[in-house]
Amino acid sequence: MYPNSLTHLARANPFSAPLFTLQKAEEPQQDLRGSQRTRRLAAAATVDEDVSCEFGSSKYYALCGFGGILSCGITHTAVVPLDLVKCRLQVNPDKYKSIGNGFAVTVREDGFRGLAKGWAPTFIGYSMQGLCKFGFYEVFKIFYSDLLGEENAYMWRTSLYLAASASAEFFADIALAPMEAAKVRIQTQPGYANTLRQCAPKMFAEEGLWAFYKGVVPLWMRQIPYTMMKFACFERTVEMLYKYVVPKPRSECSKPEQLVVTFVAGYIAGVFCAIVSHPADSVVSVLNKEKGSTALQVLKRLGPKGVWKGLVARIIMIGTLTALQWFIYDSVKVYFRLPRPPPPEMPESLKKKLGLTD
C-alpha cells in the first residue's frame, strides 16, 4: 500500500533528528490540535518531569528569549578581543599577518584596553539577536510542526528545523544590524570612534539611517546559513551522541551529564557554522568599514582567496561561542524547569504505515 521509496526515506534520511519527539500519545489522533496535547507532543516531556510551564506557552517563549539574551550576549562579549583581531585580519591583511601578530600589533598600538574596543555594541546587538534567534525559533518550530502534522513533522523534521531557524534569523539580523555596523567601525577604523556613544551619532550624521542597515543583506547571507547549520547540525549531533556515544539513555543521564552532551554537540556544530558563513562574514566586515561600497563590489575585490582570510580565528571563536551558547541556553531551561525534549522516536502510526510494527 505504501511505496518502498517512503520506507527508504524514513530509514535512510540523514537529517532525521527533531528537537522534539513526536510519540504515540494516549489521546485520540483527532485531538492533535488540542493545545495541551500539541504542547506535550512537541515537548515530549515525560509524565513525571517537573516543569514550570507548558511547552509553547507565553512563559515558555519568554524564558527561551531570556536564555537567548544570556547565551548570545555574554558569549559574544567574552570573545570581543578575538573578534576584533579577526575583523582586522579581514579588512587589513597587509598590516595584520596572523592571529598572533594581530594581537601583538593591537596591544602595541592601543594597549590591552584596545582589545576591548566594540564591547558595548557587541553586547547590545547580540543580546537582541539572541532574544529573536532563540525565541522566534521556538515559535516557528511549533508553528511549522502544527502545519505539517505529526507524521510529516517527524519525516521532514530537519527541513522543519532549517525553516524555523532561517525564519527566526531573518528577524534576529534586523535587530543586530545597527550594532554590528557600529562595532565594525569602532574595531577596524582607528581614530573613528572609541565608544558606541561617539560612533552612532557620527555614523548617522555621515550616512543617515542607511549606515546602520546597509550591511543587513550580507548579514542575512552570513547569519541565516550559519543559524540553519547551527540548529540542524546541533540537533543531529545530539541524537548521534546519545545513540552511539553516551552509554545510557538520556532519561537515565543526570542534568550535568546532559549539559556536557549539549556542549560537545554545540562545539561540533560551531565548526561547521564557521566554515559555511565565513565568506559572507568577510564581506560584512569590509562593507561596514567602507563608505559607498556594495556587497557585490566588495566580493569581487576580495576574490576567492580573500573571503577566507581569518577563517582559523573564526573557527576557534565560533566553535567556542556555539558550544557555550547551547550550554547556557540549555542551562537556563534547566534552571527555570522548562520542558526539555529527549531524542526523537518515530510515531507509532507511522511505524504501522511503514510496516515496522505488527
Automatic annotation (TrEMBL):
Catalytic activity, as annotated: phosphate(in) + H(+)(in) = phosphate(out) + H(+)(out)
InterPro entries named among the record's database cross-references: MCP_dom_sf, MCP_transmembrane, SLC25A3/Pic2/Mir1-like
TM helices/strands, residue ranges: 259-280, 311-329
Segments annotated as Solcar repeats: 59-143, 156-240, 257-335
Stored PROSITE patterns: SOLCAR (PS50920)
Topology versus the membrane: Multi-pass membrane protein
A GO cellular component annotation in the UniProt record: mitochondrial inner membrane
GO biological process: mitochondrial phosphate ion transmembrane transport
Sample GO molecular function, one term: phosphate transmembrane transporter activity
Annotated keywords: Membrane, Mitochondrion, Mitochondrion inner membrane, Repeat, Transit peptide, Transmembrane, Transmembrane helix, Transport
First-listed, main subcellular location of the protein, grouped into a coarse class: mitochondrion
Subcellular location, record wording: Mitochondrion inner membrane
Pfam families reported for this sequence: Mito_carr
Primary role: Inorganic ion transporter that transports phosphate or copper ions across the mitochondrial inner membrane into the matrix compartment. Mediates proton-coupled symport of phosphate ions necessary for mitochondrial oxidative phosphorylation of ADP to ATP. Transports copper ions probably in the form of anionic copper(I) complexes to maintain mitochondrial matrix copper pool and to supply copper for cytochrome C oxidase complex assembly. May also play a role in regulation of the mitochondrial permeability transition pore (mPTP).
Family statement: Belongs to the mitochondrial carrier (TC 2.A.29) family.
Quaternary structure, from the entry: Interacts with PPIF; the interaction is impaired by CsA.
PANTHER family: SOLUTE CARRIER FAMILY 25 (MITOCHONDRIAL CARRIER PHOSPHATE CARRIER), MEMBER 3, LIKE-RELATED-RELATED, SOLUTE CARRIER FAMILY 25 MEMBER 3
Annotated protein name in UniProt: Solute carrier family 25 member 3
Gene: slc25a3
